[in-house]
């Protein structure tokens, strides 16, 4: 129930609907019991052969005789209205029964109507908070998680919570109230028979609970396996070219089939255990009915202490208990399954982000003087990627970071944008530590163009507007021109309204990269970070993108991480890294004169 309590907080905004649902369920439970009680006058009319009756107004003789009084009172009034006409009496009784059943079903609908808003509203809020938390958590969290597993939690696990926990919100009131009202009516008919019900129903509950003990563990396996094969699907779609190019279809097919086979076995085990609840509860219920038939039949036929119509009504009431009792036992199964789903969802929701803004964090709207990295050391896991790294980036200057793969260049971009926090040292902007600033305001000061052009399945315009949502079409076109992209966009069907497909699949690599640059241009940040923005392009595309980059970097502070050294020859300072440490720095011609690491890198690229 620990997870249930945490999920329950999402239902608080919809407590008005819960209150209305409870009221409707109270009336539903009342009329559910009355629907059997009003059968007594019908049975009396059908089986009482006396044509002439002495009309005597009944008297109330206490709670245990209340059913007799209720029956006699209805019979007395029906007889008065029917004037001892059996056909009229039958008509009145049928109208009464129809009215009671109508009210029962009206309140049943109203209860379901109100609970719908509660369930779907809670489901919406859980999904919204889960998505919000997912995009808030740092990149390091997702390096240890499969995307498919996150998708499974957002989709099927949240649905499982709705089907289990949120159904129980209704069962907490509806079914217990139905049982309570039914037992009250049963007690008015026969205390002895009701005691038998009290004895056998708890026994049934214990047996059913024993069956469901392992459901949470089995359900957890099902949900984890579902997350795994969704991850395989996501990876397969993302890497389809590699899978086909290396003839790996068979390998991935085998992985997927092994996963679905495990899912098949876990699901069968879970569902078979769940399905055992219905026949078990049904058999136990019939067992209770059998005992009541034997004991109650003796009270009617042998002892004469119970009327026939009262006994048949009592049996109907006893059966009326079985339906909510079975629903409650089924809910206990759902609760165990929902518990496993809630655990997986709450694992994300309860994760504290190490990059969360401090309570006293401040906003920064301008960049005035410099960005400074002081004695920065950082590691992703065990070994240091940066060691005692220091660099000062003055406003309006372009700093280039070069070096072999794994030397720590991209890590600097991740630290400056605060995707990660430094392990040692300090990064400041205009003298303020990045950790003292709100992340949102910090990232507003920066534009990012990465090696992989991250675009979305939308129009060119909407992709560019991610940089500045309130920009006009003219601003978008101007940004495209600066990024050297308008030349191809204007020829597309619909130009800026053209849909670029999934991850920009309808465009070439160079075109996608120029759109990424246009997005950064439109944002117009004072600091620009270019993370190997041309390394994945062919020579022609590189030249077009390079022109776009030069246009963008005019009068702007830039940190350029470069693999191709032709793109950074005009930088104000080139910093050469090796294994996380600075080995050389200076202008292009100065570093060439040193004939050191940079000279060798240039020579290898045949640029000297």
Q: Can you offer a commentary on this structure?
A:
The protein has 608 residues and is an alpha/beta fold. The chain has two domains: 2-349, ABC transporter type 1, transmembrane domain (ABC transporter transmembrane region fold); 370-604, P-loop containing nucleotide triphosphate hydrolases (Rossmann fold, 3-Layer(aba) Sandwich), CATH 3.40.50. Helix content is 62%, strand content 10%. The strands form two sheets. The protein has a six-stranded mixed beta sheet with strand order 6-7-8-3-9-10, with helices on both faces. It has a four-stranded antiparallel beta sheet with strand order 2-1-4-5, covered by helices on one side. β7, α21 (539-553) and β8 (557-561) form a beta-alpha-beta unit. It is elongated and about 120 Å long. The two termini are 70 Å apart.
Summary, kept brief:
By secondary structure, the chain is of the alpha/beta class. It is built from 23 helices and 10 strands. A 6-stranded mixed beta sheet has the order 6-7-8-3-9-10, sandwiched between helices.
Fill in the keyword field for this structure.
alpha/beta; ABC transporter transmembrane region fold; Rossmann fold; elongated
């Amino acid at each position: 129930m620990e997870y249930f309590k945490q999920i329950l907080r999402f239902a608080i905004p919809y407590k008005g609907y819960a209150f209305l649902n409870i009221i409707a369920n109270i009336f539903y439970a009342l009329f559910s019991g009355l629907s059997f009680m009003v059968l007594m006058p019908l049975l009396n009319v059908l089986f009482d052969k006396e044509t002439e009756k002495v009309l005597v107004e009944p008297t109330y003789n206490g709670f245990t005789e209340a059913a007799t009084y209720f029956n006699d009172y209805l019979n007395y009034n029906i007889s008065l209205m029917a004037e001892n006409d059996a056909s009229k009496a039958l008509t009145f009784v049928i109208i009464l029964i129809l009215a009671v059943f109508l009210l029962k079903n009206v309140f049943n609908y109203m209860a379901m109507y109100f609970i719908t808003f509660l369930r779907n509203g809670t489901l919406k809020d859980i999904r919204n908070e889960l998505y919000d938390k997912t995009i808030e958590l740092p990149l390091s969290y997702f390096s240890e998680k499969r995307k498919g597993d996150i998708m499974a939690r957002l989709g099927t696990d949240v649905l499982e919570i709705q089907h289990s926990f949120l159904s129980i919100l209704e069962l907490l009131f509806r079914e217990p109230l139905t049982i309570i009202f039914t037992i009250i009516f049963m007690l008015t008919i026969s205390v002895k028979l009701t005691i038998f019900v009290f004895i056998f129903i708890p026994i049934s509950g214990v047996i059913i609970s024993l069956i469901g003990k392992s459901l949470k563990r089995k359900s957890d396996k099902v949900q984890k396996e579902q997350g795994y094969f969704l991850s395989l699907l996501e990876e397969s779609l993302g890497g389809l070219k590699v899978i086909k190019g290396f003839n790996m279809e068979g390998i991935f097919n085998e992985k997927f089939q092994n996963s679905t086979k495990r899912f098949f076995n876990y699901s069968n085990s879970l569902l078979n255990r769940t399905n055992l609840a219905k026949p078990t509860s049904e058999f136990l219920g019939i067992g209770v009915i059998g005992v009541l038939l034997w004991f109650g039949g003796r009270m009617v036929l042998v002892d004469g202490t119970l009327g026939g119509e009262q006994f048949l009504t009592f049996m109907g009431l006893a059966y009326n208990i079985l339906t909510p009792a079975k629903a409650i036992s089924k809910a206990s199964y759902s609760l165990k399954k929902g518990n496993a789903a809630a655990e997986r969802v709450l694992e994300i929701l309860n994760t504290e982000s190490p990059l969360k803004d401090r309570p006293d964090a401040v906003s920064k709207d301008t960049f005035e003087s410099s960005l400074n990295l002081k004695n920065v050391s950082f590691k992703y896991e065990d070994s240091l990627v940066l060691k005692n790294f220091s660099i000062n980036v003055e406003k309006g200057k372009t700093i280039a970071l070069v070096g072999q793969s794994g030397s720590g260049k991209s890590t600097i971009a991740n630290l400056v944008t605060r995707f990660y926090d430094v392990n040692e040292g300090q990064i400041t902007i205009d003298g303020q530590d990045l950790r003292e600033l709100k992340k949102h305001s910090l990232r507003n000061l920066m534009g990012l163009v990465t090696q992989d052009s991250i675009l979305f399945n939308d129009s060119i315009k909407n992709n560019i507007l991610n940089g500045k949502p309130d920009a006009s079409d003219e601003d978008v076109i101007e940004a495209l021109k600066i990024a050297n992209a308008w030349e191809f966009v204007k020829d597309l069907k619909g130009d800026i309204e053209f849909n670029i497909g999934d991850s920009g699949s309808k465009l070439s690599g160079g075109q996608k990269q120029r759109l990424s640059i246009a997005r950064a241009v439109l944002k117009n940040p004072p600091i620009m970070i270019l993370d190997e923005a041309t390394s994945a392009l062919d020579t022609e595309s590189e030249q077009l993108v390079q022109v776009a980059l030069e246009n963008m970097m005019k009068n702007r502070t830039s940190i350029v991480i470069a693999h191709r050294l032709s793109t950074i020859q005009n930088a104000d300072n080139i910093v050469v890294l090796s294994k996380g440490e600075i080995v050389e720095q200076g202008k292009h011609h100065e570093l060439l004169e040193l004939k050191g690491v940079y000279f060798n890198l240039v020579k290898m690229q045949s640029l000297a």
